[in-house]
User: Fold Methylamine utilisation protein MauE domain-containing protein from Amycolatopsis mongoliensis.
Amino acid sequence: MIGAQFVLATRVLIGLVFAVAAVGKLAGRVRLAEFAASLAPLGRSPVGWLPIAAATAVVELAAAALVAFPATYRLGLGLATAVLVVFCAAIARSMRLGRRVTCRCFGRSGAVLGPAHLVRNALLAAWAATALAVPPGPALGLDTVAAAGLVGTFAAVVAITWDSLAGLVRGPDAAGR
Assistant:
């Protein structure tokens, strides 16, 4: 039964994180344009960054929707894992090249993508991939559904506020922020 609870908590976690990320990017033309502009330091894009930004938000929304349903949650977790691995590769590449890419993961954080974002996305990818390997298990009772939902929601809040939490651990930067 613990496997079924873990899978449900992961579905809640991934669903909330990807829904908030998509809504943060699709909250208006300005937000989407800001997200597209934040990608420019990654290098040249053959199609421009706006279509890639829009596609990213749509894929995030699709992953959030897919994990919501028992019949499609495995597809959603697989999509989320793949997207997170791509995000990790992009962040690692920008760090290796010394490029300052502004984080627009959830809209407007303003932080520069760095090791904290890489760790967050790697943890989320590992969590989602692990849930893919767990058998669905038996139906859960209301109390275990509630517990799994709370764990998933708490983990999502931690992931969404990761920049602030990393700032608490890291301390003030050179600008005193």
